[in-house]
Amino acid sequence: MIHTTVILAMSADGKITDTALTAARFGSANDKSHLEQQVAASDAVLFGNGTLRAYGTTMRVISPDLLEQRKLQGKPPQPVQIVCSRSRKFDPNWRFFQQPVPRWLLTGNDCRDTAMPSPSSTQDSKKEEDTAVPFPYPITDCRETAMPSPLPSSLFLLPSSFFLLPSMFDRTLTTKTIEGEIDWIDAFQQLETLGIKRLAILGGGKLVASVLAAGLIDELWLTVCPLILGGADAPTPVEGKGFLADLAPKLELLAVKQVGGEVFLHYRCDRAQSQNTHK
Fold first, then answer.
1. What angle do CA 183, 216, 129 make, to 5 degrees?
2. Which domains does the chain have, with CATH numbers?
3. Which of 127-136, 149-158, 175-184, 265-274 has the weakest average pLDDT?
4. Residue 102 burial (CB < 10 Å; 0-12/13-18/19+)?
5. DSSP classification of residue 166
6. Are 223 and 32 in contact (CB under 8 A)?
7. What is the pLDDT of residues 141-151, one digit of tens each?
8. Please, are residues 31 and 262 in contact by the beta-carbon 8 Å criterion?
């Protein structure tokens, strides 16, 4: 069973970004260090396309101590970065696609027609064969294996709505869908089959809500930052349709830590209760 932890920073009024949906960089250096530690402890990191669109990059492990820790644990330098997207619309100019990290795409089985078909060449078949191995990968340096082949310069002249070439991801996971949404039970079963044991979820609020509704979240880390963002349309840590009070997922407070003007809250989520409530 995959152990799932949500890590988010929010304003004092519970917003994870402003109404313009800009990248939430209001956390301190302490919060960034905390996030890197959680990422380093994970086999994979999951986030939505909206989160990727806001930042253009992903959090990777750069601390020498954390890199050494992963090495001693027999893990590759970087956890797998998994983008959840049903539209498959990406901007090839995002720095994410040049970062030295393994990249996977998670999408629904009703979205196949929106993506460009993968060229049926011997080289592509061999690549699929090479990457179809359980985690951790038999690699010595993710910089040598995780980055896609150089893209033609003409590709970067295309608009941001360009449908991403499948070759820009090391693996594509296609899940069942339920009422047009990702079937997270199926998705987690696929991830577990591929050797993912610890998963960090970094947003956004809609993705967190859907995984929470499936009863698949074990822990929640919230950093409360000293600012007010406001805005009725500003995203919150958990969005979606919401939960009635009697059916809301229950949390157990594990720790509270104040560092400077920020408060770090650590909760355990009752997965069994969530699964029974939302069946």
1. 60
2. 28-37+44-204+229-248 (3.40.430.10)
3. 127-136
4. buried
5. G
6. no
7. 333 333 333 44
8. yes
